[in-house]
Amino acid sequence: MNKKNIRILLEKVKNGKIDINKATSTLKDLPYKDLGYARVDNHRSIRNGFPEVIYCEDKSLDEIEGIINEMLKHDNNILATRAKRKVYDRIKTIAPETIYHQRSKIIFIKTHPIQETESKVLVVSGGTSDIAVAEEAVVTARALGSQVDTLYDVGVAGLHRLLDSLEKLDEAEVIIVVAGMEGALASVVGGLVDKPVIAVPTSVGYGANFEGLSALLTMINSCASGIGVVNIDNGFGAAHLASTIILQIEKART
């Protein structure tokens, strides 16, 4: 249940269209619902602006289905990350409107229209090998309502590719930079713009890349100001942070 639904419920109580007992019954699972194996946080969208997101790795199909069934009762759009194809095949049987984004491994169930923001997130990738993580950021940000554009394969080995697209950097309010290898792209972008840059190191790279650790350390130690860094391969976390920033920008516009 989100703020809009609570307001509608309270208006119905106020106008006598629903009695207090029925309203209390509707709200009884609002803080969270204890399923035994999971406590579904039905209150999160009210606190944080966005509903809880399901992380599917190491959860059984029955557990994921149970969580989704509970969330469907509360009229929130549902996002499930790191979901394998078999998870989608299972969830499709209970929610036919389910969409699977295979490259990003994200399941999305759209229960109501998404109002797209005026402000824009730009997702930039160093190389084509980074696109899976970049797409996790793209799909997440769009599901959370952010307007999203992309700029892929503009890594520092061919810097002219980035410099030829400076107008895209200028158009965005928040930029997510996804890069593996040595992760230098985030510093380059950070030195070119006057807006928040969220850096995502990826595990893409050869042996001494240490599965993304070298890119992570480069981004943390960036000499460019205004760069925040999330964990390795965490496109979801970057998109959630970017969408939170966008939400504040949109509030300031009104």
List the helices and strands and how they pair.
Layout: H1 3-14, H2 20-27, E1 33-34, E2 39-40, H3 44-48, E3 54-55, H4 61-72, E4 78-81, H5 85-91, E5 99-101, E6 106-109, E7 120-125, H6 131-143, E8 147-151, H7 159-163, H8 166-171, E9 174-179, H9 185-190, E10 197-201, H10 213-220, E11 227-229, H11 235-253
Parallel strand pairs: 3-4, 7-8, 7-9, 9-10, 10-11
Antiparallel strand pairs: 1-2, 4-6, 5-6
Helix pairs in contact: 4-5, 6-11
Global structural class: alpha/beta
Provide the domain count. 2
**Regions with little confidence, pLDDT below 50 for 5+ residues:** none
Number of helices: 11
The name of the CATH architecture of the largest domain is 3-Layer(aba) Sandwich
Please give the number of β-strands.
11
| Main pleated-sheet profile | 5 strands, parallel
CATH class of the largest domain: Alpha Beta
Shape: globular
Could you report the average pLDDT, rounded to the nearest whole number? 88
Relative helix content: 25-40%
% residues in beta strands = 15-25%
Distance separating the two termini? 24 Å
Whole-number radius of gyration? 20 Å
Q: Helix and strand succession? A: HHEEHEHEHEEEHEHHEHEHEH
